[in-house]
Amino acid sequence: MDDPLPLVRDVLDKQVIDPDGCKVGKVDGIVLTLRERRPPRVIAMEISQAVAWRRLHHRLGDFADWLRTKFEPGRQDRAPRVLFDHFVRGGIDVHIDIPWKHTRALVWEDWLERRVIAKIPGGRRGGKKD
Amino acid sequence: MKSLMNVALGIVTSIGGFLDVGAIATAALAGAAFGVQMLWVLAVGTVCVIFLTEMAGRLACVSHHSLVDAVRERCGFRYFSFLLIGELFVDLLVLAAEIGGVAVALHLITGIDYRWFVPIVAFALWLLIWLGTFSIVQNGASLLGLITLAFVVGMWWMGPPWHEAMKAVVPSTPTHDAAKYWFIAVGILGALFEPFMLNFYASGAIEEKWSLKDIPMNRVTAVLGMSFGAVIAVSIVMLSALTLGPHGIQVDSYEQAALMMVQPFGSWGIPLFAACLGIACFGASLQVALNLAYLFSQGFGWRWSENLKPHEDARFALVYTLAIPVGAILVMVLGDPLQITTFSMALNALLAPVIVFPLLILMNDRHYLREYRNHALGNIVVSAIVIIAFLIAIVAIPLEVLGG
Q1: Which among A15, A112, A126 has the least Cβ separation from residue B69?
Q2: Counting CB atoms within 10 angstroms of each CB, which of B17, B34, B202, B399 has the fewest?
């Protein structure tokens, strides 16, 4: 039998890192399914500020979710999720085995990059190293 | 070479952490009103800040996580949200005060109303962060910050009362104006415990890719950097005690504080004071603006690095791009930068336990620090800091409100 994984200690709120070492986001929520006479099963990790704010108060979550569905580029009904099948290991960071491009967690980053930051002089070049 | 760079990080942090508008003003005020009697407050504060800085750096070396990053992960989103809201509010006020400090320095040199300089300073600040790398920001501010050694030269020139100063390192109670004495003491400590400084230092260590082998250098950096800041702050107290106190000059504006440099440097005194104030505040404003971007990016798990091109960490770049104009607008709307500083220092003191308490938890967490956890001495000192900071928070605000 596998060692038990302390979800709150080793998964929730931890930094999600993809196979290339890119930061994808924090684990803002964990999706479980309840099963009759069996322990709940972990389905996915949610990466969405709406989910995080809902943990503070449901109204804050509702408001953040309304903003997300209204304004998020390529509007989606559901907050971005990474299936738990892609979980590699937890600890002080959570490592996953799919690249960030497949997660939808960085839609805002992409939108801001293309529509705002790249249009400011120096946004693409700058004097910075790669 | 890297070691020298690390020490530079400590020095630039000390310029921001020690020598901002608040520290310069409170040190000048202390010297003018009570001579060298309050040097013990600086001594206690410096020891505390050295411990805190070393811990923030060690956390980064071992776990490769900054303070904000680790607080979100270890204490959860609920706790982080309090920190986020509190630090956002306080950092914006401090940013406003620092931008105002640079603008006032330009006013001292040119005589033109400081408000005209606020947008120019804000734009220069943004441009440097937008185009520069962390090394440019760090080394530029460190090198220019060495001009603040003028305070040390000035103190030396005036012939400091060493015997009295040594005696003043031992805590003492005032013989007159007790309320004012303790208010200034609270102000000095409030200016030292600026929460943004700790996260900036830890984030800088990650930007510079510090690792386990940098732990000894982190210790040296924390001690040397903070001591550098302390020496300058002590020099301001002594210089103020020697030049302003005997003439009964009370420091309630920068123009009055600037007079401390006239006696040792003559006609160069005011421009030299302005240069020191402007550079120290510009260094601090770089730190605060970057720290706001670190705060959001690390708390929400976004990409972040001052070394990346802005389009590579768009949300990070957006935060400082929005924060800097907000800071500039606050200076224009709220007015006197000195008053903004005084208010934000009290709020700093209120916020200090919110960041110091989780730091203590993290420094004893074997998942983050492994065998590099705190020793008893570190825990005792940090616990004492939490209590001092809490007392500061309780005492500072009523004193500030009642004292007008």
Answers
A1: A15
A2: B399
Shortest distance between the Cα of B137 and any Cα of chain A, in A, equals 12
How far apart, in whole angstroms, are the C-alpha atoms of residue B117 and residue B110? 10
B368 touches chain A (CB under 8 A): yes
| Cα of A8 to nearest chain B Cα, Å | 9
Residue at A75 is within a domain = yes
pLDDT in tens, B173-230: 888 887 778 778 877 877 787 888 889 989 999 998 999 999 998 998 888 888 888 8
A42 in a structural domain: yes
Distance of alpha carbon A120 from its chain centroid, rounded? 28
Q: What is the CATH number of the domain that holds B143?
A: 1.20.1740.10
Q: State what percent of residues in chain B have pLDDT above 70.
A: 92
Domain that holds residue A32: 7-119
What length does chain A have? 130
What is the number of domains present in chain A? 1
Report residue B173 as tokens.
């109670």
What span, in angstroms and rounded, lies between the C-alpha atoms of B163 and B382?
31
Three-state DSSP state, A45: strand
**Number of structural domains found in chain B:** 1
Q: How far apart are CA B112 and CA B91, in angstroms?
A: 27
The interface predicted TM-score of the complex, written ipTM, equals 0.91
CA-based nearest residue to B325, from B162, B111, B96: B96
pLDDT at B80 > cutoff 90: yes
Give the chain B residue nearest A48 (alpha carbons): B300
**Mean pLDDT of the B344-364 span:** 84
Cα-to-chain-centroid distance, residue B395: 20
The pTM of this model reads 0.92
Residue B342 has pLDDT above 80, yes or no: no
Tally of CB atoms within 10 A around A33: 9
